[in-house]
Specification:
By secondary structure, this protein is mostly helical. It has a domain of 200 residues. The protein is built from 15 helices and two strands. The radius of gyration is 21 Å and the shape is globular.
Length: 305
């Protein structure tokens, strides 16, 4: 009897047609997101009844949450575009927990996959699958198999070596409970705000920050101009830059992901760059990486729109 070798088995499996990907909806996430957005819409209608200090506190929490994502998970940990001393890393980890967008480790892993496999099935929020998918839909369905398969090859050794990252990852849920909910709700009650209004404002803040972050994946991948590389989807979008603390200069960022400012224009509509520069004045942020004018001009000439 003729036997089949391992090599022949591998060849047969390779020739076999791949199982067609079928999107699977995660209904729990769908229901939670519907509830969050409905509660946020309701809160907007009664916003005028909130105390002025509550509105100011909510705005501060929005800024803190965004900085935890932009200066922390994104520019520091995902791209290593600058270095931060231990006190700043701890502060950014707490800020990041207020944003509640997955731990620094998970967020950075997904973002590195997004850059390495941009606009392919291995991109967690592939914009070629439409606006709704890359904005929020990618969180409402199970990830494409390629995301997990190719994502395993992403190097995360620097994150595993960072004690702050691993501590936050280990105690992520308690830190989210504290920073995303308990603190934002408790503080307004100190000056007499009701628990219900504090809770609703907390949900509104969370919803707004989520959508501002998602706009970088959706709006800034579809609309805008492409002065650095006309051949890719990410675009320069000042509106997103304003709402997402400087993250809307997306054509530049995808061409030069190592630039700590994610923009050619420094602090222009870029709250995150202002924050990092301020931390540098105190010696807490160092080694801020920037694209040289020569490299910038050469790239614009070669692939710019």
């Amino acid at each position: 009897m003729q036997t089949i070798t391992e090599t022949q088995t591998s060849e047969i499996l390779a020739m076999a047609p791949e199982k067609k990907y079928r999107m699977q909806i995660v209904w729990r996430n769908v229901l939670l997101m519907i509830a969050l957005h409905l509660a946020s819409l309701y809160t907007i209608t009664i916003l005028h009844t909130a105390a002025p200090l509550t509105l100011a506190w909510t705005l501060l929490c929005i800024i803190i949450s965004e900085v935890g994502v932009t200066a922390g998970a994104h520019r520091l940990w995902a791209h290593k575009s600058y270095k931060a001393k231990l006190p700043l890393r701890i502060l950014l980890a707490f800020f990041n927990s207020m944003a509640f967008q997955n731990s620094i480790l998970e967020w950075s892993r997904d973002h590195r996959s997004h850059h390495k496999f941009s606009e392919t099935d291995a991109d967690p929020h592939n914009s070629n699958r439409g606006f709704f998918f890359c904005h929020i839909g990618w969180l409402l369905v199970k990830k494409h198999p390629d995301v997990a398969k190719k994502g395993k090859g992403i190097d995360l050794s620097d994150l595993y070596d960072d004690h702050v990252v691993m501590f936050q990852n280990r105690f992520y849920l308690p830190s989210v409970l504290l920073m995303c909910f308990i603190v934002p709700i408790a503080v307004p009650m100190y000056w007499g705000e009701t628990f219900l209004m504090s809770y609703l404002m907390c949900l509104l803040r969370y919803c707004l920050v989520l959508n501002c972050t998602w706009m970088v994946n959706s709006v800034a991948h579809m609309w805008g101009y492409r002065p650095y590389d006309k051949n890719i989807n990410p675009a320069e979008n000042s509106f997103v830059a304003l709402l997402a603390s400087g993250e809307g200069y997306h054509n530049y960022h995808h061409v030069f992901p190592y630039d700590y400012s994610t923009s050619e224009y420094g602090v222009k509509l870029n709250l995150t760059t202002t924050f990092i520069d301020t931390m540098a004045l105190f010696g807490l942020a160092t080694h801020r990486r920037k694209v040289s004018p020569e490299v910038l001009a050469a790239r614009i000439k070669r692939t710019g729109q």
